[in-house]
Amino acid sequence: MKTVSTILAAALVAGTALAAPSVMAQDYPTQPITIVVPFSAGGPTDTVTRLVAAAMSEDLGQQVVVQNVGGAGGTLGAGQVAAATNDGYTLLLHHIGMSTAPALYASLPYDPITDFEPIGLVTEVPMTIVARKDFEPETLEDLIAHVKENGENVTYANAGIGAASQLCGLLFMDALDTRMTEVPYQGTGPAMTDLLGGQIDMMCDQTTNTTSQIQAGEIKAYAVTTPERIDVLPDVPTMAEGGIEDFELAIWHGLYAPAGTDPAIVERLTQSLQVALANETVATSFADLGTAPVTAEEATPDALAQRLEEQIALWGEVIAAAGVAAQ
């Protein structure tokens, strides 16, 4: 029979165990933090992450390291974080691909909703339709005609199934009712290298990966995927200006921790993310890349959770309508 003292002792031990994560959270972080980018180095998500990581490092007093885990349209890196220890030292910065993967992959190694704790939205980046600098079409109208005439003879680079670059290409081909030959890469960083070298015809990618090359005249730009032209690329028309209506696509990015991460740690990371996005260097660098940080109200767990759920439903319908088979 248990005595009162035994019961009290057991309760004390249990209470200590329950309180332990919060005690740990009070000292967090005590070591470097890794943010996994599920794409190769040099791509648009990598660029965004490195800017944010540097600013978060200053705020947290610990180095925030970026680790690139590319492959399978971002699902390999996301799966690695989902399986990581939920102590706040392994995070994921992913883009819209978190919401498209359920419709694109028959079997995912994670559930985007239940296997992650959302920390906050980061930014929404416009896309650009670009091509090698010696590609024959000069305008968006010329490009549309060229793709319709040549179809699968046109090579289109992307970062694999579910990547933003592939989604944009699917929408573009659907608008033209024409198929191009897709050439998948581990990320749009290496794809851009081949585009610059003339080994590939065209690509649709985020301004964070294309702006400097467009401005330098190293690649051709045909259109942006925003309703209006953007300040950093004022001479690049919108898709609507070229005759393709209702083609709008912005690639949102979010920061996540593995499911079960202590709420106090998530709160601290959210605060740090908000500090980073308010950093003048981050804002200026984002502007130079054709984007901007989200507001403090959007850089929250609730805002990211809502965006993810809405976008999973939206892209499920879009991808089904496009007739894309799950891999």
Low-confidence regions: 1-20
Name the CATH class of the largest domain.
Alpha Beta
Examine the coordinates and then state which fold CATH places here, giving the name of the CATH topology of the largest domain. Answer: D-Maltodextrin-Binding Protein, domain 2
Shape descriptor reads: globular
Over the alpha carbons, how many angstroms does the gyration radius reach? 22 Å
Number of domains: 2
CATH superfamily of the largest domain: Bordetella uptake gene, domain 1
H-E string: HEHEHEHEHEHEHEHEEHHH
Structure description:
The chain is of the alpha/beta class. The chain folds into two domains: 30-125 and 251-322, D-Maltodextrin-Binding Protein, domain 2; 126-242, 3-Layer(aba) Sandwich (D-Maltodextrin-Binding Protein, domain 2), CATH 3.40.190. The chain is 44% helix and 18% strand. The protein has helices spanning 4-27, 44-60, 75-82, 97-104, 140-150, 164-176, 188-196, 207-215, 263-277, 280-288, 301-322; strands at 33-37, 64-68, 90-94, 116-132, 155-158, 181-184, 202-206, 219-224, 250-258. Strands 1, 2, 3, 4, 5, 6, 7, 8 and 9 form a nine-stranded mixed beta sheet that branches. Strand 5 (155-158), helix 6 and strand 6 (181-184) form a beta-alpha-beta unit. Helix 2 (44-60) crosses helix 8 (207-215). The radius of gyration is 22 Å and the shape is globular. The N and C termini lie far apart (59 Å). The model is unreliable at 1-20 (pLDDT under 50). This is Tripartite tricarboxylate transporter substrate-binding protein. Keywords: Signal.
